[in-house]
Amino acid sequence: MNDTLPENVRDLHSRVTESANAIGEEVQSATTTATGEAQKAVQDATEATAAAAGQAKTMLDDAGRAAQQAWSQAGDVAGDAVVAGRRATRSVSRQIHENL
User: Fold this and answer.
1) What share of the chain is helix, strand, coil (3-state, %, to 5)?
2) Count of alpha carbons within 13 Å of 12, Cβ hemisphere only?
3) How far apart are CA 29 and CA 22, in angstroms?
4) Residue 1: strand, helix, or coil
5) Is the overall model pTM greater than 0.70, yes or no?
């Protein structure tokens, strides 16, 4: 019986070692898969953020150009209003002088 005990122990040790190795391989495979998926998610998020930043920059540039154009047009309109006001003032002044 003593001869079979060490053989049983060796067999058990061998089975435990094989199981541990198999579990280790599964854990390593799962870790590799999870790492790859995480890297892909980070890459996708980075690309999406860069695209959104590019779109935001384009929108801000467009808004800046529109604001400059509106400012310029407002200046033109104000200038035209000043000129029209001066003409009206001169016209009224002439009429007053003519009627005096």
Assistant:
1) 95, 0, 5
2) 6
3) 11
4) coil
5) no
CB neighbourhood size of 64 (10 A) = 10
- Cα–Cα distance for residue pair 15/19, rounded to 1 Å: 6
User: How do residues 84-95 score in pLDDT, each as one tens digit?
Assistant: 999 999 989 888
Q: Which helix (H) or strand (E) holds 61?
A: helix 4-99
Measuring CA to CA, how many Å separate 56 from each of 7, 8, 48, 68, 97?
73, 71, 12, 18, 61
- The number of angstroms, rounded, from the C-alpha of 83 to the middle of its chain's C-alpha atoms is 49
Range 36-48 average pLDDT: 97
- Residue 100 CA, distance from chain mean position: 73
Tokens of 87: 């003409």
Asked whether residue 48 carries a pLDDT value surpassing 60, the answer given is yes
How many helices (H) and strands (E) the chain has is answered by 1, 0
> Tokens representing 45?
């998020």
